[in-house]
Amino acid sequence: MKNFLPLFMMVFFLGFTGNLNAQEPWDLQKCFDYALQNNIQVKRQILNAQYYGNQVKQARADKLPNLNAQIGSDYSFGRTLNFDNTYKNTNSSGLNGGISTNMTLFSGMTLSNTVQQRELDLEAITNDLQKTKDDIMLSIAAEYLEILFAEEVLGVDSANIVVTKQQLERTRQLVDAGSLARGSMLEIEAQLAREELQYVNDQNRLQLAYLNLFQFLDLPLTESFTIEKPKLPEIQANLTMMNAFDVFNTAINVRPEIKAAQLRVESARKQLDIAKGGGMPSLSFGANYYNNYNNQYTNLNGDNISFGDQIKNNYRGSLGLTLNVPMFNRFQVKYSISNSEIQIYDSEFQLQQARNLLRKEIEQVYTNALASLNRYLSTDKAVTSMKEAFRYTEEKFNIGMINSVEYNQSKNNLTQAQSDLIQAKYEFIFRTKILDFYNGVPITL
Asked: The whole model's pTM is what?
């Protein structure tokens, strides 16, 4: 059963990558473009921005006069008092209708302040949308580099397996010739089995990295692909990085989450102006036109008045100004102002919190980048030394000066150092790309 599981994983992965290889490779920019067009989070944020866009349009439209028309019809029956002071049963039908309009002339600047507040909210939501896109691109870049890392580790695994198979064949020949004990060959066979299992595990890691990338792209597994292998920047000992303080000073002016928090402070201040406007007098203009018709209306001769004559004679119109002076509204304005002031303080705290979080993130990324650079440089020297040490160990093993345990230990040390070197390289590349991103530089590979 233990031997069957690695075999099953290898067959499954080969089928998976076989499907991948049938597709054209995607570079990092293509992954970004697809995600920004298809990711559900982005789509929802776009809808949210459209909603706030409608809020702005509505606030602007609230400044315009309204216009409403109404028409009614009625049918009356029963006893009616006539002009000769007698009652009789009368059935009548009538029509009535009118048009009215109203426009706010002054309302304590609440309409204008509401428009400005909605515009600030829309701009903040637009920056939230950009922040969502940025987060997705960073996640995609991380998984993209994880795939490249896993593929490079697989390359090391493959090279180790080739070397171990060659050594196994030489050891078998020496065992058959009686120069080495059979235990040495068994140790090499066990080493080969461990390396093949490690190869399967690293294949699984590559598969999971692709799966994570699919999920960030919201791409179905049936639409598989391989990524393009870019030429990565060379890491040198004399490499210098922009320090965290300089990156933060730039990021504070360009990052969308900071802009969104600043805009929400301004929006809260506009809300205070709106609340104060609620305590000021308001002036509105209104106009009305009304007309009606009834089939029982008669003239002095008792003849029914025609529809046209009634419409001509029954109309009424009015124009007027209405001044509304708030005097006592159960302290609604007072507490609305107080709550608006509280909201200003809260939004300022949120802005400071966003700045602090950004500073911490940049400092953490910078520290990790510096640590990974130092780890890469030291591990690079270690790999060079261990390659030479393993070559010397291999020569001694071939002539029987050391046993297979020492040989395997030297080989495992080299493999671990190579894996650490690759990991440090990709971690450094990713951290520096994040620093560049905070500094306003697009992510590219």
From this structure: 0.81
